[in-house]
Design brief:
It is a single chain. The protein has one domain. It is 56% helix and 10% strand. It contains 4 helices and 3 strands; from the N terminus they run βααββαα. It has a 3-stranded antiparallel sheet. The longest helix is centred in the last third of the chain and has 15 residues. The protein starts with 6 loop residues before the first strand and ends with a helix. It comes from Lamprobacter modestohalophilus. This is AlpA family phage regulatory protein.
């Protein structure tokens, strides 16, 4: 079965990682959650595979340092 990539809007990211809006943006500022990508003039979303990677790392017990490294890898893969 092929892996389908999609974009997730903030409410879906909040639901999937179990965090509030404020916590999502605090995690982005702390470097433990990837920055969203712009999908319009006033709209952002997250690539689903990046959120999946974050969830997998969290459930595997990743440390904050490991999460920061993962986020850096995800951003680098985007070309950021």
């Amino acid at each position: 079965m092929p892996h389908t990539r999609s974009l997730l809007r903030r409410p879906e990211v909040e639901r999937r990682i179990g965090r509030s809006r404020a916590s999502v943006y605090a995690d982005i500022a702390a470097g433990v959650l990837p920055r969203p990508v712009k999908i319009g003039q006033r709209a952002v979303a997250w690539p689903s595979h990046e959120i999946d990677a974050v969830i997998n790392a969290l459930t595997a017990g990743a440390t904050p340092e490991e999460m920061h490294a993962l986020v850096n890898q995800l951003h680098a893969a985007r070309g950021q």
